[in-house]
Amino acid sequence: MQQSGHYFLGVDGGGSRCRVRIRDAGGKLAAEAEGGPSNIYQDFEGGVAMVIATAQKAANAAGIPLNQLHAGLGLAGVSSSVDGAKLLRESLPFASVIAENDGVVACLGAFQSGDGGILIMGTGSIGIAMVEGQRHMVGGWGFTLGDLGSGGWIGLQSAQRAALVIDQMAPTSPFIEKVMSVAGDNRIDLTQWSVDAVPRDFAALARDAFAGAEAGDPNAKEIVLAGAGHMSDLGRTLLSRGAKQLCLMGGLAPSYEPYLSEDIRAVVVKPKADALDGAILLAQRAQA
């Protein structure tokens, strides 16, 4: 087992997966692990349990008890749909806990606490900027109210387009045929799929949408371009609030970048570090 001391746990939890990283006080990597969905807005109890289980996996690999880890939690839903205080009232088994929105910790990591903004393009979507110590958040309203341009949004638009095709109110295409092969090619099956589906199920259709757009599929391209417009709008809002540079993050960022507006692409820079190190920085600052 590792010697006792200060160890910091960074958690990046969203709608599709939970990632954790442990570093010692000197910054040396001790362990990493990955688990399943941990969006506490969609499933509070399940999200908390996933964070603990994934942290335990990394702690076991590092030989460090959970109660020696100072945890920085970056979780989808915190400060936008779930009060962080509710999370901190849980009996979390860490030495200390500080919780923030996953976008905030991603921004901390990307600019190492400096000024700048990020656009997260994953199952959900959000824009976050830190400018002269002030936080600016746009989007990130969740699947029901927003997450415009996100993977979940792309999947929803795709399923809605499939419904129009089934009703013979819109022309089909190879991409829509692929959507119907997954979600249903008739009224009963598509309706049932939509009732049972959660945001990550919709988001699973996004990769095919980008592939279809690249191949020139008209339905896929229309959806992807509309999504890129929404993401570009988030970026412009952050620029209008003082951000000078933007980082693109999330699983869909590489696919989206060529479709973003020219003014947004002109200010895109690579992040200095990822969301996990941003969460660790959050935990370190809380202990300083």
CATH architecture of the largest domain: 2-Layer Sandwich
The low-confidence parts are none
Shape: globular
Q: How many DSSP E strands?
A: 9
Radius of gyration: 20 Å
Characterize the main sheet.
Answer: 5 strands, mixed
Instruction: Domain count, please report it.
Output: 2
Number of helices, where a helix is a run of at least 4 consecutive DSSP H or I residues = 12
Which key terms come to mind for this protein?
2 domains, Nucleotidyltransferase, domain 5, 5-stranded mixed sheet, single chain, 288 residues, alpha/beta
Notes on the structure:
The chain has 288 residues and is α/β, with parallel strands linked by helices. It folds into two domains: 7-112 and 272-287, Nucleotidyltransferase, domain 5 (2-Layer Sandwich), CATH 3.30.420; 151-265, Nucleotidyltransferase, domain 5, CATH 3.30.420.40. The chain is built from twelve helices and nine strands.
